[in-house]
Amino acid sequence: QVTLAAMVVVVLADNLGVLWVAIETTTVATVLLVGHRRDRASLEASWKYLVLGSVGVATALMGTVLVYFVSRHTGGDAATALNWSSLVERAPALDPGALRVAMGFVVVGYGTKAGLAPAHSWLPDAYSQAPAPVAALMSGSLSAMSMYALLRFKVVADITLGPDFVRTLLLIAALTSLVVAASLMVTQRDYKRLLAYSSVEHMGLIALAAAIGSPLAMSAALLHMVGNGLAKSVTFASTGELLFATGTTRIGDVRGLLHQRPFVGATFGLGLVALLGLPPFSILASEIAIVRAGVADGLAWAIAIALAVMLVIFTAVLVHALDMLAGAPGDTPMTDHVTTLTARIPLLVGLAAAATLGITVWPIGRLLHAAAEVLAR
Question: Looking at the whole model, is its pTM more than 0.85?
């Protein structure tokens, strides 16, 4: 409940200092859940998450404090110096040199919390050791919260500095994240860690859309946050049922899942289909929009690199998925665990929502476009 309340504050806060406090609260609240099993692996993962996550938010705090001083230097009132709405109004008068330093801290800090490479090393350990519902929450929402915070700062920086400075930082982070995710997903042997590296990939795609920065790209970034959140929540929740059924997270020990556990196999498989950007799910629509926006904005070279890397990721995940879902049943026995109705309903609702947004964005289209117009100033 603390985590959910903090996430609501992140979305609603106008003050960037309050936003930082809310994101730090999510770190403290979830670190205990990551280490819930209290064995060596989970405690190591929770400690790594706490240390690297805290370093990230501490770095973001340095950037936030610098923004405060820059705002006060322009004559801003102390009570409203970090209010985002006030910063946007005063952005043309802010000191460019100091703001460049501040944005460097902000991109590194919130990028670390979002799981962007090269500061992503906490993410696969934390996601693989956390309980399935916690991993679903972290991968589906918490990483997106940090990217959202970064986008709020980007609006101010683009007005003061022009788009090129933050664009360069985000392009480096985006392409590095895609390449790192692809290289590690090809050789991955644990299906929860495979999904964790998929989170690095999708945060990289959102960063790429943010780097492009046009209204179409920002709409795509926001839609991608929603689509990735739904698909990742379904797949991580499915891994909980999969772990109950097989007792293992090793990809090589899970075979013939569709035959032996049809419901779990189907939801896990459809979640992977959604993450790969295949129809009818919404990630396909957001990825197409990112490609269109990048080409239109003169970043065809970055789009070409991203597409090449995504092809490698697509092939790697497809090979792993076919072995797990349709391969000949292995020697690992299945338990008699039965997926309850209360566990099935959220999985089906998540898949239905992701598919609906892939067919039409009507339910949230106006909200996405309105938000994108603000973020693409």
Answer: yes
